[in-house]
Design brief:
The protein has 163 residues and is an alpha+beta fold. It has a domain at 13-115: Ubiquitin-like (UB roll). 12% of the residues lie in helices and 23% in strands. It has 3 helices and 6 strands, in the order αββαββββα. A 4-stranded mixed sheet has the order 2-1-6-5, with helices on one face. Strands 3-4 form a two-stranded antiparallel sheet. A hairpin with a 5-residue loop joins strand 1 and strand 2 (39-45). The chain is globular and about 50 Å long. The two termini are 38 Å apart. Mean pLDDT is 85; it is low at 144-163. It binds zinc ion. Residues 41, 105-107, 112, 115 line the site of zinc ion.
């Protein structure tokens, strides 16, 4: 497997300074449809790929399998037009909001996670189930009166916010 170019990228040094790259010089880039919030795919960027993404209006990745830069849509027609790019708190991941043309996944699925499918997972519920606006961790006397019993059914309340 090739590694990204070792020559310096034109990426803004103040941005490059914030990145925490893996041993191959790469940062994970999560790609999200800007209006629906759908998580489309995950790709990898080195400094140059990020520079191209930030300056060209099109998303460019580093292909770990092919060892080359890869501008999404050049072969498939399924381009990703950049709407916004964010870096996470510790600099090891990027969030790229895009307008996706057609399928994001090379399989033809709209998203790579549609293509991969759901895994069996035990669904967890928060202990109090009440969705209190009080911060958790406030110690009580340990007395639970049960007064909130039935406040919520706990069903169908997952997610929904934050779109
Ligand atoms: Zn895919």
């Amino acid at each position: 497997m090739s590694t990204p170019s070792s020559s310096p990228s034109a990426l803004d040094p103040t941005i490059a300074h914030r990145l925490k790259r893996d041993e191959h010089g790469l940062v994970a880039a999560i790609v999200q449809q800007h209006d629906s919030g759908d998580v489309l795919m995950l790709g990898w960027m080195d400094d140059e790929a990020l520079h191209r993404t930030l300056t060209s209006g099109r998303v460019t990745f580093w292909s770990r399998s092919r060892g080359e830069y890869w501008r999404k849509g050049d072969t498939s027609g399924h381009a990703q037009y950049v709407r916004a790019v964010a870096v996470d708190c510790d600099g090891d991941a990027l969030l790229v909001r895009v307008d996706q043309v057609g399928a994001a996944c090379h399989t033809g699925a709209r998203t790579c996670f549609d293509a991969g499918g759901v895994l069996p997972a035990v669904v967890g519920d928060r202990p109090d189930g009440a969705g209190s606006s009080e911060p958790s961790g406030v110690p009580s006397t340990g007395v639970t009166t049960g007064a909130t019993t039935g406040a919520t059914t706990g069903a169908g309340v997952a997610g929904g916010a934050g779109r």
